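hey
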């Protein structure tokens, strides 16, 4: 009985993700970062007519041990574009930061602020920048740098006196229209985007498009691996959401 009460209380604390927005920009470090958590929500959003753009800070060139960075970069970029298309994302941009050694700082904030000013999103999505994952596994420096810089760049983009050179020729304008930053974090979840079977199937297919990466990562068939992982994510959230599948976010109002 005590566990039942606790589960009911946790479920009540998970609010629904806001729906009154049209444009989102998802900013992560590597190809596959979004597919490991947010893709089912993205599929749901694009089916509802919302516009979602992906921004990858690197091309994931250091992510496959058996391929040199020069060989891996075009493979991973192509896989990311194919993966995004599965969940209805047409626009995929890449920055030129080096995989594995992204540095938090002014240069990264400047690049992200420019992207936010260019795309003018109402919702920004990024990956967890917590020190650890559940179980104590250490998060990567790239994830931590990009997640933290994303939150800072949202504020930078709205301040005309920060990176004013971006505004000098009129190509970009300041953008203070970001209303939320949603972090795909397995801890501290505050909001849920409920998803259906079609969303889950598309998320599975989206992750499976990273075939070269998944083949290097595991001997398991990519589709099998992807379904096991994605269903684990959405079913795990269902245990905290009254049995309804979803993707969890830590939502920061701006």
């Amino acid at each position: 009985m005590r566990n039942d009460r606790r589960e009911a209380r946790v479920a009540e604390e998970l609010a629904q993700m806001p729906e009154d927005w049209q444009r989102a920009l998802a900013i992560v470090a590597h190809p596959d970062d979004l597919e490991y958590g947010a893709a089912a929500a993205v599929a749901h959003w694009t089916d509802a007519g919302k516009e979602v753009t992906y921004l990858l800070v690197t091309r994931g060139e250091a992510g496959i041990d058996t391929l040199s960075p020069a060989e891996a970069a075009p493979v991973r970029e192509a896989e990311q574009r194919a993966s995004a298309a599965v969940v209805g994302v047409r626009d995929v941009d890449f920055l030129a930061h080096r995989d594995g050694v992204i540095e938090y700082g002014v240069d990264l904030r400047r690049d992200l602020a420019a992207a936010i000013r260019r795309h003018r999103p109402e919702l920004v999505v990024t990956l967890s920048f917590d020190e650890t994952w559940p179980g104590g596994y250490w998060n990567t420096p790239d994830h931590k740098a990009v997640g933290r810089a994303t939150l800072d760049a949202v504020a930078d983009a709205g301040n005309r006196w920060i990176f004013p050179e971006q505004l000098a020729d009129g190509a970009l304008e300041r953008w203070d229209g970001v209303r939320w930053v949603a972090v795909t974090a397995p801890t501290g979840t505050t909001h849920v985007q409920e998803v259906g079977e079609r969303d889950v199937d598309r998320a599975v297919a989206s992750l499976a498009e990273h075939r070269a990466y998944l083949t290097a990562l595991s001997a398991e068939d990519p589709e099998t691996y992807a379904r096991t992982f994605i269903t684990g994510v959405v079913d795990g959230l269902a245990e905290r959401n009254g049995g309804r599948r979803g993707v969890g976010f830590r939502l920061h109002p701006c």
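The helical segments are 2-13, 39-47, 69-86, 106-119, 141-157, 197-208, 211-217, 222-238. DSSP finds eight helices and eight strands in the chain.
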